[in-house]
Amino acid sequence: MDLSLSTRTVGDRTVVEVGGEIDVYTAPKLREQLVELVNDGSFHLVVDMERVDFLDSTGLGVLVGGLKRVRAHEGSLRLVCNQERILKIFRITGLTKVFPIHTSVEEAVAATD
Amino acid sequence: MATVELRFSALPEHVRTARLVAAAVARRAGVDEAVLDEVRLAVGEACTRAVGLHQAANVPAPVRVALIEEEKQFSIEVGDEAPRSTPGERVPGAGPEDPEAEGEDEMGLAVISGLVDDVEVTAGENGGSIRMTWPTTS
Description:
Chain A: Keywords: Phosphoprotein. Chain A: It comes from Streptomyces silvensis. Chain A: It holds the Pfam family STAS. The complex is a heterodimer. Chain A is an alpha/beta fold. Chain A has 4 helices and 5 strands, in the order E-E-H-E-H-E-H-E-H. Chain B has a 5-stranded antiparallel beta sheet, with helices on one face. Classes of the chains: A alpha/beta, B alpha+beta. At the A-B interface, helix 2 and helix 3 of A face helix 1, helix 2 and helix 3 of B.
């Protein structure tokens, strides 16, 4: 399965819906998408990972890169994920402390902390 | 000899194939269903690292994955042929050009060691390997 990406705007947030597998082969596509959004002035991103089947460290690297980019513009990058097998990867790498992780897009969009 | 052996050109698009094959053989060997996700992730990380090392050092050789079914355990050994000047270290100046990719090698290893209890990482002049072992129930 390949990677699918779609974006939509909700208020001042941009929701990036990701589906499929994020690995060493597909991660560059996600990176391009995040870079493009930031270059176009979207600094408050919500990455919806509910339809992600697989995520590895390359994908984590891209998300960290995205976070660095939005933070340079005082922006934010929030994740939406309820899948235990995906959450586990954030946990073992300590990245749960780096990313705000929400249970729904609505919650992530409403978050202001 | 390994139960199943796989060699693939050091290209990112083949890592997924290695994950699928490894998970299929692990399931057949009797690795617990609940652990298969970890097997898939760990072998993917090891292969991703090997592909990166081969590409960074311009090694034309394929990456090798050995899937070994033994009594009461299942092992996966991912071997690369990227030379290290010092064991365990990256070839000088051969790091990724993209600064965002920096540290991904370490993150991959961190994921592997976080997932797998029994893991052995070796590296030498002629390449290195990561060997991971899981218990089997059947």
